[in-house]
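User: Hi! Is it possible to get a structure for several chains at once, not just one? Here's what I have:
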Amino acid sequence: MVMRLRFIHLLLGFILSFLFAWVVGNLFGDSIVTYVWDQDLDLLVVTPDSIHQHRSEGWASTKVGKHGVNVIPDIKRLSCLKIAIWGDSHVEGYCVDDNEKVSEVFSDLAKEYYKNEIIGFSIGLSRNKLADYYVNIPKYDKLCHSIIAHFIILPRLIDASPIIKNDANFCNFISSPNYQLNKSNWSPPQNRLRYFLAKYNLNFIWIIARDIASNINLRFKLGPVESEKNTPKHEHQYSVDAWNFLLTHLRKQSPSFPIIIVYCPEVAVIKGGTLVSTDPDGKYAELFKRACSEHNIDFINMADEFNENYRQTGKLPRGFPNSRPSMGHMNAVGQRLVAEAILKYTRENILRKVGNDIHSN
Amino acid sequence: MIFTQINFIIFFIVVLVFIIIVKNNRARKIFLLISSYYFYAYWDYRFVSLLFIYTVVNYAVGFFLSKTDVTNTRKALLTLNLIFNLGVLGIFKYYNFFISSFEVMLAPLGWHLKTLNIILPIGISFYTFHTLSYTIDLYKRKIEVCKDFLDFALFVAFFPQMVAGPIVRASEFLPQLKISHNINWENAATGFRQFTLGLFKKVFIADRLAMFVDYNFENAGLFDCTTTWLAVAAYSIQIYCDFSGYSDMAIGIARIMGYSLPQNFNFPYISKSISEFWHRWHISLSTWIRDYLYIPLGGSKQGRIRTYINLIFTMIIIGLWHGAAWNFIFWGGFHGVALAINRLWASRGERGSAVGGGFILSKITSWGLTMVVVMIGWVFFRAKDFQQASLILRQMFIPEMGIAWISPFVVSALLGATIVHLWEVLAPENDLAPIDAWYTPAVLFSLIWMVLIFHPTGFNPFIYFQF
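Assistant: Yes, the chains can be modeled jointly so their relative placement is included. Here is the combined structure:
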């Protein structure tokens, strides 16, 4: 009798704890991102009409629209002028709420000058590099028709360099035997499993499985363990030749409309006990800027804006209370600063208002 | 391998299955010894020989001590044993520290000693104390000699407690090895409960707090006063959960196998005096130091001034035991002075009488003062050097402008810790998850889920592994 009671306690305990984990996972865990094939774009995008909840960094929800565009339900249906904002996870913006994302802030700010005649929309995917936009810019140009400029958010200069491992999202930029741009067929790992778990809000199981898979290190061999040699991820750290090659091809992808690279370095960042305001890649950024201008691509360096904003307000452009201040993804402050810079550039270089009409340059 | 890794879980399951299947006590002990040596070699096989040498030397000393009643011979044996144990510990742990610290003084004498490229063997501070407790108790005739080499070797190398405690006395553990321990439901349940609580404290609380604390200390002085106080409070919880969590896991693992290890922590943060704190914090170390150092020095029996000196000296040794660095020595001395002051205050008796609300207020004040002293001590314990410690303390007490960072998890952890400790104060007889309650499995499984879901990425070794 006692043994039977104990087994029942264990079973009940497991069931109750499973329910508890389900609740906790849904409240405090990141939801699972699932992907579908977009026929119009001929690539995988985040499942439309899904809501992604992000809790690991920041505390936010993102409503996903069609064609991999956040917030806007269907970008194809909007007839107004559009600014496309490209990027990686910074532009994906899962860490900030929809109204704090760079594209939404831009659209909001632009209303003051242009009412609803122009909006910004963002296409971001974690791990995107500069070469990935070479593949995707023409697809969205064809989809939307009224894109008048492409802004590419570049958080690191290294994202413009060739890579060794062919694991890019959409385009592998390699340098051996010579510079090449090879299209890549990216697919998210375990998409079917993601779908199944997402359907029943079992994101906590996905979190556990993902963490175990990425951190498991089953070693039973005796120590000591030799430390792994650091293999460089990028063959050529910074090469002007590599940049020229990539920028030449990138420029061709949108011949009629401007491409602007918005460089968002890690400045106003806490490192080694001080607040670092200098970009360690600053001199390379100048070289990159020169390379961009040679290819008719404009370059905005956000370093000064980030530093000045910190000096004036004490607010850092990156980091969240549940991560680390100044590190990680851009927070609402950083997103706003970038949106303001994009708007300023758009007003000064792309649009001029004539009466009540808006004409592009 | 550490207790929170899957490798260890697999290892432990194998050990457990063997113990369940094999009923013969001797066979079990042989397997446990092999497993313990494998556990140690998993870190670095080269130091298995050191562990074996420790075992052989201490066993031999014990053997010879049991064979003679001549006082001088026994003294000589004990002295040699102390020189060996503390000498090996000193070379591995303190040689470089003393050379680099005293280089300034030695250089004018023409002595230019070089530091050595030494790896600190994991757990050496702990198993040195294990073996010393054996030989000293044997010398004092408090225990009988352990004739069985297998038992003694297992006492030294027993994997649950070898690398980070609790520090187990020979008198507590050796008798357990003589009896065959069958895995039974009660031990398994009790052990599992303690292991799970320890796992939760270490992975969910301590490792996550570490991310906040590390960043604050690395960038000491940049954050504002509130954030800095939060970081120090967070470290207080982190080190408690890290160390007591490990102890709980070690005790739980041993209990599952049927062995009993001493409890190492007893809610130290409800202490109302620094003296009480040291009765509740790292109990196995503080009692070891009390019995084998403080009391032999005279304890409190040789007058007030000598008592204070003994207290301060003993605590400095405790600081030094924790690490070969001046901030640890300072931390120990700081606690020693606090203990001396506490003793002085206590010896002057109660000032007036406090009843009712006044009594409660007095207790709260005592508790608050104790916590401030302990937290200030932790600043020195955690800081990499005095400069970092001074930056932290300055920001705590002479605040300047800085970056504000109020982490929701840290605040929640502090609130949770407060509630748990309040519960202990107000209802000490009521466990939050008693072993025989129907809901305890649900609580324990839920804690495991929390550990799995919110497992921090990156490797966070146990803090006390470095000692």
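The interface with chain A takes residues 5-7, 10-11, 38, 41-46, 185, 211, 215, 218-222, 403, 405-409, 438-446, 448-450, 452-455, 457 of chain B (CB under 8 Å). The radius of gyration of chain B is 23 Å.

User: Great, thank you!
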